[in-house]
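seq:
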Amino acid sequence: MQNAIYAQSGGVTSVINASACGVITACLENSDKIGTLYAAENGILGVLHEQLIDISYESSADIAKLRHTPGGAFGSCRYKLKGLEQNRLEYERLIEIFRAYDIGYFFYNGGNDSADTCLKVSQIADELGYPIKAIHIPKTIDNDLVVTDNCPGFGSVAKYIATSICEAGFDLESMCLTSTKVFILEVMGRNAGWIAASSGLASSNESEAPHIILFPEIVFDEDLFITKVDTIVKMYGYCVITVSEGIKNKSGELISNSQQVTDDFGHKQLGGVAPIIADIVKRRLNLKYHWAVADYLQRSARHISSAIDVEQAYALGFTGVKLALIGHNAIMPYIKRISQEPYGWEIDYAPLTEIANKEKQMPRDFITQDGFHITNKCRDYLLPLIMGEDFPPFINGLPDYVRLKKHKVQPKLPAFGS
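struct:
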């Protein structure tokens, strides 16, 4: 009977801990097949540096509370393993850790780059002759993983953004006669406009917010945009705009003013597009505006998470363990939509070679012909993902979230790099 390691990676979500809860619960229910379950602190870095947490020290009550706690309970990281030829030492270190702790199962909970890491782990283990079942548990608010119908974390962000833009619209409408005419909300989305699109669920007709959505998939044309804003303000008295942080101009350059900064994955650090759009509105139309950035709020808002999102996140974690136990390796469990009305789904799985380093953008027929809103086809896809409320318990008026004990094991090996 071998042991297991679970780790979280990349930007966290309001439901990634629900997946953790699913993994832990499945491991505990199969204690005759899986021995000790360890969690790596801060993702793959925790494995490399032997910062391992013994889950057996956590109470069943605290483990259950993970299902409604935001953030990453064990810490996450943005760290991309280089290719085997570039940094073989890291991979050999991982196998060294696996051997020291008799690890037979590795569950990596993350997005695109995490799928790549999980695949590489399985490949080096095979090359070095170490048997491991490496399973990628999907997670990303960007909804850009291929194969899966949708990604855990996205439905809750979609619900938060649609709710926020709806409420902001009511606020702006009530004040627009003598005050602000334009409100701009910047949301996450590097290359895919799924989050921006979700704001469109707030409007049932063209008079309701949001009036304009700016997608990364559609080239930003300043003249067309200003004409649209001017028309809407003249027609309704105000204009609410959702803008994705990754929108680009005709030259393919990011509108964002912080495009020169990159993270450890080589991705350009985004953010800061809302004030640029606001400045265009002010300069071209001289309208009073306000802008806001949803930023971490959109991905941490567990108080308004989608019930279906929580359910799917948990199920994917639980099923990932089940798939490992029957011998699967280098795969990702994913959500398969089996019916639209009523909405139905099931879990299937696919090899990581079909998923790693690929990205799903919005189909063009999900965006209106003028490029400024979502189509009914997009609305039909999005709507089931925000359904249901799974409120956390509240104490003294605030959510009752859990902080785990996180009991670290004593290292068995010399420090990495020493």
